[in-house]
Design a protein that fits this description.
This protein is of the alpha+beta class and 111 residues long. The protein has 2 helices and 4 strands, in the order βαββαβ. It is 25% helix and 23% strand. A 4-stranded antiparallel sheet has the order 2-3-1-4, covered by helices on one side. Strand 2 (67-72) and strand 3 (78-86) form a beta hairpin.
């Protein structure tokens, strides 16, 4: 009799790479326009707003991702703005109209 050792089969590990959703426009301050969904007094409130708005209206974002922008309003203090970058003011206005139709609150801005 011979010694037969079972061949070691390589274990296939499925590499699940997270797929990055490409935003409709570059995140940060370089978008042509924005849909501003909320302005919050803290970063934590802004993140909570991002979650709830994405859950409620995410299908209207056209594949875009909400960004949080910190802004210093002087005497009013620092606010965190929840915004959706878009490639034009008309696109922002169109998305905002759809969000309002869903009962959301927003405005289009090119700043």
């Amino acid at each position: 009799g011979g010694n037969t050792t079972p061949a070691q089969k390589p274990v296939q590990v499925a590499a699940t790479k997270p797929v990055q959703a490409t935003p409709a426009a570059p995140a940060g301050g370089s978008a042509a326009a924005y849909v501003q969904l909320s302005s919050q007094p803290s970063a934590a409130d802004a993140q909570a707003s991002v979650k709830s708005m994405t859950a409620k209206c995410g299908s209207l974002f056209g594949g875009g991702t909400l960004v949080v922008q910190q802004v210093d309003l002087g005497q009013k203090g620092v606010r965190w703005r929840v915004r959706l970058p878009t490639d034009s003011l008309s696109a922002a206005a169109s998305i905002c109209a759809q969000i309002k139709a869903q009962g959301g609150d927003c405005f289009a801005t090119n700043g």
